[in-house]
């Protein structure tokens, strides 16, 4: 889990790996799964299943049900193609991860904004904590919750007004 960057993985390679993952479960790469896959791997934003479904509904192409979106996201997550993040706001957000450097998240508990960050010191401390306890670290997720800059300003302004 060191500081090395992951190798760049080509879109065609990711697609082939997903098709193989589906075949290993006796599933097909349907036109609906293809539309979901293509949308996910063309965005670099965090998204919810409902956001993805709404986008696919608006665009031309084969109809994709909400259930297919959720099932495909589960398959992509099982295969290590996407990760989900619980923001504490009642739904998961997803991002594609294959070929991307590991990072952690700052989540605003007011507006839901998500900021990605990487800190080598935090990474080393986590690795040391695992090693000291004889734990073989395979993966980790770090989510820090608080208020983003804009919400902190709003909260400060609101507390000043209530003090008057």
What layout of secondary structure does this protein have?
Layout: H1 11-24, H2 31-42, H3 49-58, H4 66-78, E1 82-86, E2 92-96, E3 104-108, E4 114-117, H5 120-132, E5 143-146, H6 149-163
Parallel strand pairs: 3-5
Antiparallel strand pairs: 1-2, 3-4
Helix pairs in contact: 2-4, 3-4
Write a structural description.
With 164 residues, this protein is α+β, with helices and mostly antiparallel strands. It has 2 domains: 1-101, Winged helix-like DNA-binding domain superfamily/Winged helix DNA-binding domain (Arc Repressor Mutant, subunit A), CATH 1.10.10.10; 102-164, Ferric-uptake regulator, C-terminal dimerisarion domain (Dna Ligase, domain 1, 2-Layer Sandwich), CATH 3.30.1490.190. Helices cover 47% and strands 14% of the residues. It contains 6 helices and 5 strands, in the order ααααββββαβα. It has helices at 11-24, 31-42, 49-58, 66-78, 120-132, 149-163; strands spanning 82-86, 92-96, 104-108, 114-117, 143-146. The strands form 2 sheets. Strands 4-3-5 form a 3-stranded mixed beta sheet, with no helix packed on it. A two-stranded antiparallel ribbon has the order 1-2. A hairpin with a 5-residue loop joins strand 1 (82-86) and strand 2. Helix 3 (49-58) crosses helix 4 (66-78). The longest helix has 15 residues, at 149-163. The radius of gyration is 19 Å and the shape is flat. The termini are far apart. Mean pLDDT is 89; it is low at 1-5.
**Helix-strand category:** alpha+beta
CATH homologous superfamily assignment of the largest domain: Winged helix-like DNA-binding domain superfamily/Winged helix DNA-binding domain
Unreliable residue stretches: 1-5
Strand order of the largest sheet: 4-3-5
What does the radius of gyration come to?
A: 19 Å
Q: Measure the end-to-end span.
A: 51 Å
Order of helices and strands: HHHHEEEEHEH
């Amino acid at each position: 889990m060191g500081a090395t960057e992951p190798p760049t993985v080509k879109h065609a390679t990711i697609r082939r790996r997903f098709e193989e993952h589906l075949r290993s479960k006796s599933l097909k790469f349907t036109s609906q799964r293809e539309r979901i896959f293509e949308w996910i791997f063309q965005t670099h934003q965090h998204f919810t299943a409902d956001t993805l479904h709404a986008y696919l509904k608006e665009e031309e192409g084969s109809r994709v049900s909400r259930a297919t979106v959720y099932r495909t996201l589960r398959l992509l997550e099982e295969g290590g193609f996407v990760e989900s993040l619980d923001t504490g706001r009642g739904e998961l957000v997803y991002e594609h991860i294959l070929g991307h450097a590991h990072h952690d998240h700052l989540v605003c508990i007011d507006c839901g904004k998500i900021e990605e960050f990487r800190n080598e010191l935090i990474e080393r401390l986590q690795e040391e904590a695992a090693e000291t306890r004889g734990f073989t670290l395979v993966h980790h997720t770090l989510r820090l919750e608080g208020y983003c800059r804009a919400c902190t300003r709003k909260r400060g302004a609101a507390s000043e007004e209530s003090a008057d």
